[in-house]
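Can't paste images in this forum, so I'm doing it all in text. The chain is below; anyone willing to post the predicted structure tokens underneath?
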Amino acid sequence: MTVESAPRPERRFIREGLPWVVGAAALAVYLATLNHWVTLNSLAQVNRVSGWDWQPTLYQPLLFLLTYPFRWLPAAWVPPALNLFTAVCASLTLAMLARSVALLPHDRLEQERLLVQNEYALLTRPNAWVPVVLATVALGLQLTFWENAIAVTGEMLDLLLFAYVIRCLLEHRIHKQRSWLGRATFVFGAAMANNWLIPGFLPLFLVALLRFRGLWLVNLRSRRRKDQSVGESVTPVLPAGPRPLVRLTHSGDQFKVDVGQVTAELRFLLRMALLGLAGLSLFLVLPLVQTFSPDSALSFWQALQTAAASYKAALHGFFGMFLRHHHEVALLLAAISLLPVLVLSIRWRSSALGGSQARADLALLILHLTHGFLLVICVWTMFDPPFSSRQISLRFGLPVTFLPLYYLAALSIGYYSGFFLLLFGADARQRLRRRAIFRRAACWLVPKLVYVLAGLTLAGLVLNNAPAIRAASAQYVDQFARLAVASLPPKGAVVLSDDPGRLAVLQAELAREGKVGLYPLVDTRALPFPTYRAWLRRKYPGRWPDSQAEVPPAPGSPAASVTNAPLEAVGPLQLLSRLVQSNRVYCVEPGFGLMLERFYAQPHGLLQE
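Text version of the structure:
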């Protein structure tokens, strides 16, 4: 096998320049389709950043830290600024994907090892850009990814962390620097603190970390036979991989362990554990914030226990309950995302494909068909068939986007398309005999099929998903908010609703028009809680009654003995009765609950007075 001393500049562009080109192109697409205001999916994040959410923020600490500077912007600028932030995260994610696809090793089969022309088995052919572009197009234009790239939901930041971890592992394979593994461990710990779904990938991350480090069990019996036949010292080393955990030297019939090497590797494991805990320590940020927040009544330990309980409940609900009772769904999700990655991670030995030439040819044919099937399945997944992650999430009502699974499928698309371009390229055709008519025909046809697949993927995703993106970016929510605010009196009023989503839409429109202080928005479902009423008094000083106007619980009621007890059912009605005496009160809905027994609703535009 020939090894190039240095990669060619035009080939290096695929690894160093093309990812930035892909990121810039993706950013242009997302800016062209960017939502310039709020959507139903982005309301929660906009509320949280703008300070309109009265409940304490106890999850996604990294997103909280990165979006905290947006609080200093004018309220009308916050929604488009957050959407721009998520578009940048999506573009960086695709740039990470392009870099990772370019760093994938193409030495899984003996045929690949004969065709690659560099030390690290990278794809350096003139058409090596095709797998990179195909993988990024498949992921970037996938509907779930596209939706979360043009409106802030917080999912894109988690996917960016996930993509960076994979990129660090692949960079370590090339540069052999421990810092890449340290970055991967720290970022993975931060991702676990930011998203409860990431711990599901912890076993896979540990296996990948130990594999890239070279921590493998050594078959002493086979090594002893090899040492006896060759007469050399035994050192278990992976091909083109890092040094092993334990260095074994042979002396007679005994094997000696290099204690210094074991100590160094134990230090490495300890360092990785500390870095992972350092990233996971971001989980303590939000409880600390709640301790010093005037809008929170929780202490540090109360906030920490509440956050941990919520995190545990989410993990138990998804991994413990859903996957246990729907294990066939879990196997299906693994088959379309994890299985392709597992297959491409196997490095086949030439002896493992059969002893005779006929068996070897049959084994290669089966592997080629398997690779082709996995490539088609991964591309098909991007079009959201019934077995895709998006459809499964919608079918079971799961609040999960499964974007990491789509990312792994896109990574597999990059490898398997490059696999066929390498094995059936011009160099492979030159190695064939003149009588190998079928193989020559395959070398002529297969690359063209890959090009056709790339073109069909681009055209199909645009035609299939662009109408949905256009419909999601329509100004229906904007029109509702403008008409609803136009129905309010110009001098101010109190607006009631039992739907927090509608109140959030009105709040965003009032912020855009600079009228937040004139219209206190009240969630009637949260009105019985004293912490919410205290938040209203701080949020709207002078427009919301003080605590003396509240009706305490009856002396004989169970709530009378509780310090922080909610008001009884009649309490909110009496509070609103006093509120109506000095304010004009509107409600978003025509009427609900006990409100109909005390008040009469008169229509005013989209609202009721």
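Residues 437-472 form the longest helix (36 residues). The first strand starts at residue 248 and ends at 251.
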